[in-house]
């Protein structure tokens, strides 16, 4: 398996874990753009959100539940945060294993067109 994030799940590539259960792994981004920059990924490989069937969408709800848990554990639930999912080339997705960026710990810039 050549997927970078599958290698992180398998422990072939190290990461700083924030949360783990049987379905999901959360770890610090290697190149953070905010005081908290956490990546949350399903352990099952999907290239991106468009590869998840309706019947499997429960994993997305689970990821959001995990993000809530992490935000309250770290304390940035009170100050707010941003969840980002880049999809495909125009979306700026570099790693082709679906992941949710969780950004917090500072006032984030407003999106520009
Ligand atoms: P994308 O642009 O695909 O939405 O985001 C990929 C993210 O993965 C980037 O923020 C990048 O810094 C992060 N990343 C790339 N390689 C590694 C790695 O080996 N370890 C960790 N922890 N993060 C990585
Ligand atoms: Zn993968």
TrEMBL record:
This protein's name = Histidine triad nucleotide-binding protein
Map motif Histidine triad motif onto the chain.
97-101
Q: Extract the Gene3D superfamilies matched here.
A: HIT-like
Q: Which organism does this record belong to?
A: Romboutsia sedimentorum
This protein's source sits in the domain of life called Bacteria
Residue ranges of every copy of the HIT domain listed in the record? 4-113
């Amino acid at each position: 398996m050549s997927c970078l994030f599958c290698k992180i799940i398998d422990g072939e590539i190290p990461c700083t874990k924030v949360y783990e259960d049987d379905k999901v792994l959360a770890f610090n981004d290697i190149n953070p753009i905010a005081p908290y920059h956490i990546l949350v990924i399903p352990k099952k490989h999907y290239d991106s959100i468009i590869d998840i069937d309706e019947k499997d969408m429960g994993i997305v709800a689970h990821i959001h539940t995990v993000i809530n848990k992490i935000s309250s554990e770290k304390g940035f639930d009170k100050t707010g945060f941003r969840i980002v999912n880049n999809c495909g080339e125009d979306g700026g997705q570099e790693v082709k294993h679906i992941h949710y960026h969780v950004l917090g710990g500072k006032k984030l810039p407003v999106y520009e067109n």
